[in-house]
Amino acid sequence: MGKGRTGAKAVLPERFEQAIDRCAMKIGAKDEDAYLAEWRRIPAGEAEGDPATIAAAEIARLDAEYDTDRLKRLIANDGHDTDRPAA
User: Fold this and answer.
1) Per residue in 22-32, pLDDT tens?
2) Does residue 57 lie in a domain region?
3) Where do the Virulence factor domain residues begin and end (predicted)?
4) pLDDT tens for residues 42-81?
5) In the prediction, which pLDDT does 3 show?
6) Are 79 and 38 in contact (CB under 8 A)?
7) What residues make up the domain containing 32?
């Protein structure tokens, strides 16, 4: 969240990394370029306040929104989120 020296980073729970790795193996992304080619950035919009607090709140939101069953559906669908409406 934020940019440069005023930015903050937060780490997702381990289960997200495991789901990402399982999906990468499923689609055959064996090297770093293939692995990262499927990543997408989604603009989060503007937020007011302390970047670390905002990042922690976003982690909590993602953790609540993406339960184990939803992560399993993402893996089954090669990383495509069928629970989210198309933009």
Assistant:
1) 999 998 888 88
2) yes
3) 2-75
4) 777 778 888 899 999 999 999 999 999 999 999 999 888 8
5) 56
6) yes
7) 11-76
How far is residue 26 from each of residues 11, 20, 66, 72, 79, measured CA to CA in Å?
23, 10, 19, 12, 10
As a whole number of angstroms, the distance between CA 46 and CA 44 comes to 7
Q: Above 60 in pLDDT, residue 4?
A: no
What's the token pair of residue 35? 């692995």
Amino acid at 8: A
The answer as to whether 49 is a domain residue is yes
| Cβ(82)–Cβ(73) below 8 Å | yes
Query: How many distinct structural domains can be found in the chain?
Result: 1
With respect to residue 68, please indicate whether it lies within any of the assigned structural domains.
yes
What tokens does 66 get? 């993406």
Q: Helix, strand, or coil here: 9?
A: coil
Q: Is the dihedral of CA 69, 23, 21, 66 positive or negative?
A: negative
* Structure-token pair, residue 48: 């007011």
